[in-house]
User: What shape does this take?
Amino acid sequence: MDAGLHTRKKMGMFDEIMVPKGYLRSLLDKENEKLLDKNHLFQTKDLDNHMDLYKVYRQYLYKKKREALPFEEWEKVKKNVTIRFHDYLQDKKGDEYELACEFTFKNGRVDKKELIQFQLRMKRDEREKVDKMWDTEQKILDAYRTTSIKYKFYLWLE
Assistant: This one.
């Protein structure tokens, strides 16, 4: 990864879209831009939701062909569509941010770019408190799993 560490939260069936950092320069300031990779991968629900991979390349939207697995073959998507995509980013200090953008494509070509949201989700010290809470909860659940006869019985039934 470039400057920022990367955390990803999955949201069920979705597609991923690879957007070069250069396309977001006009939307973000220099400091926030450093959190992104050169070709950053975002999640979107605005396309087919078949876990496909899309990319923006030379102002056009492309979709990776599934049949061409050993090779990278991309086909142009020639339709009018508005795609809202997002990701969660983490800076060097450990603070977590949420970034959401919207690109409008006319006949497959980028027509409009808009920053929907860029906000601080959680500071590092808050994240550490939440992680500590989850660790404590996991210890309690692990203790229950090792001592509970009911749990062991239902686990055996599976």
About this structure: The radius of gyration is 20 Å. The chain has two domains: 5-122, 126-157.
